[in-house]
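Comment thread on ticket #2218

A.B. wrote:
> Attaching the input chain for the structure job we discussed in standup.
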Amino acid sequence: MVLIVENDENNRKMLELQLKSTYQTCYSVSVKGAKKQLKDHAVDLVLLDLTLEGDKDGLDLVGYMKAKKKLRDIPIIAVTAHAYDTDRENVLNAGCDDYMSKPLDVKKLLDMISKYLN
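C.D. wrote:
> Ran it. Output below, let me know if you need it in another format.
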C-alpha cells in the first residue's frame, strides 16, 4: 500500500495511474488527512510532496511519523518541486529515506519504490 500525499490533483492522478498495476494506493492532500490514512491502512511506503493543503507541510508529517514507533520505519520518498541541493539535503536530514524532484522521471521513481518494497 502506497500512500500518496499530494495536493495537486493532476500529479496525484499521474502517480496513481503509474502505480496501480503494481501497488494499491490511497491518498491525502494534507497532513491531517495523511495521519488518518496511516491510521486506516497498513501503509508500506509514503510518496510525499512538501507543499500541502492546510497549515502543515510535508516535513511536519515526516516528524510525526518518525516520532511514532509503529510508523517510523515506513519509507518516505519526498516527491517535490523543491529542487535545489539544499532542499534535497533538508528533506533527507528531516528523515525522508529518498528524494526526487519534479518533473518526475517515472521509471526512476518506480525503481526507487521497488528498492524499498521488494
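A.B. wrote:
> Thanks. Noting for the ticket: The longest strand covers residues 76-80.
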